[in-house]
Design goal:
By secondary structure, this protein is an alpha+beta fold. The chain has helices at about 45-55, 80-100, 125-130, 155-165, 165-175, 190-195, 210-220, 255-280, 290-300, 320-335, 340-350, 355-375, and strands at about 25-35, 60, 70, 105, 145-150, 180, 185, 235-240, 245-250, 305-310, 315. GO terms for molecular function: ATP binding; glutamate-cysteine ligase activity.
Length: about 375
């Protein structure tokens, strides 16, 4: 959840293959602040964000809890540029945190500590606590959000209809939260499990148009399931204030190279599905129950397990579903110059797994403090 407007992903419209520039893409990443000695998360977000803003400007801010800080890239056309911004911003906030005697850890849940969760003072944050009560007690989670420039909101909603089928695979490829406050949860993405407990988080409903989408959000807000009708928190949404389609289901990855590769996947999906929408295909009508079941498999087993392919309704290993994804978006990846980057990312997943696998390997080597040490960003 965010309380401030980001510029990530805004930019001029152009689609690959139409003689113009590719659509711009931007990334937001949420990161935990930790004590370098104990590895525990620390309530220092406001002061570290204030220090970092003097260096990085509005590309850094506080987040839902005081345990976190958020970075956001400017809109980028090339993934090399996006990756460079992520490296610079991560190192920049790590340097500012170090001046406060703290570290920065890209894990999607707190590895050590985290209770009680200190919620930031923004009115939208407080409204969520008032509405959801104890569901927010452990809502300290760090995500990666990808914005792709797509200003036509009817097209964006229909593109979202197509993207819904691929959300569980995005969860699996970014799974980076096996530990929560000192225990191994048995899941690859415990962040996703926490989020699915809220009525407004998870896959969005199928919608015929932006007006249809808005009517559903308004009905949920009227029923008390959503704090603000104009700011739904579904895992795909036309951003309320930016001309972008935002995808929000991913754990924050451990490495910026992985974040850039995932952003490339999301942009290629948006480009591919935009062409389908413009050809009259408004997307498959997949049931919400089917998608939530597919999410659950992805959150538990991550890349190493079987998963439910929502389109075929078959149980398939993640690498097979990744192959189907590349078949689907390969043309767009080739046009955008991102095919090599994405294939290399899937090769890395095959060789060493996800962030969740990395965390468990570090835990076997040296316990929970070693997990935090291994992940922590060097200034």
């Amino acid at each position: 959840m965010e309380d401030t407007s980001s510029r990530a992903g805004s930019g001029r419209r152009a689609r690959a293959g139409n003689g113009g520039r590719p659509p711009t893409v931007g990334v937001e990443e949420e990161l935990f602040l930790v004590d370098p000695g104990s590895g525990a998360v620390v309530d220092a977000g406001p002061r570290v964000a204030a220090r970092a803003a003097r260096v990085l400007g509005d590309l850094v801010s506080g987040e839902f809890t005081g345990l976190q800080i958020e970075i956001r890239t400017p809109p980028c056309t090339r993934m090399e540029e996006l990756h460079g911004h992520l490296v610079r911003l991560r190192q920049g906030v790590a340097a500012c945190a170090a001046q406060e005697g703290l570290g920065v850890c890209p894990s999607a849940t707190p590895v050590i500590g985290g209770f009680p969760v200190p919620v930031s003072a923004g009115p939208r944050y407080r409204a969520s606590v008032d509405l959801y009560r104890s569901l927010m007690d452990d809502f300290a989670v760090c995500a990666m959000h990808v914005h792709v420039f797509l200003p036509d909101r009817d097209v964006a909603v229909r593109v979202g209809n197509h993207l819904r089928a691929w959300l569980p695979l995005l969860v699996e490829m970014t799974a980076n939260s096996p530990f929560h406050s000192g225990r191994d949860t048995g899941y690859a993405s415990w962040r996703s499990v926490i989020r699915l407990g809220l009525p407004i988080l998870g896959p969005p409903p199928y919608a015929e148009s932006f007006e249809d989408y808005r009517r559903t959000a308004a009905a949920l807000a009227a029923a008390g399931a959503m704090p603000f009708a104009d700011l739904p928190f579904w895992d795909i949404r036309p951003h309320p204030r930016l001309p972008t389609l935002e995808v929000r289901c991913m754990d924050v990855p451990a490495a910026p190279a992985d974040s850039a590769a995932v952003a490339a996947v999301v942009r290629a999906l948006v480009v591919t599905c935009t062409r389908l929408v413009e050809g009259g295909d408004h997307g498959p009508r997949l049931g919400g129950e089917l998608l939530r079941g597919a999410y659950w498999y992805g959150t538990r087993d991550g890349w190493s397990g079987q998963g439910l392919d929502a389109l075929s309704r078959a149980m398939l290993p993640a690498p097979e579903r990744a192959r189907r994804l590349v078949d689907h978006i390969g043309g767009a990846l080739q046009e955008l110059g991102d095919l090599e980057r994405v294939v290399a990312f899937f090769d890395r997943l095959a060789a060493r797994g996800t962030g969740a696998d990395r965390q468990r390997a570090a835990h076997r080597a040296g316990g929970l403090p070693q997990v935090v040490t291994d992940l922590s960003i060097r200034p």
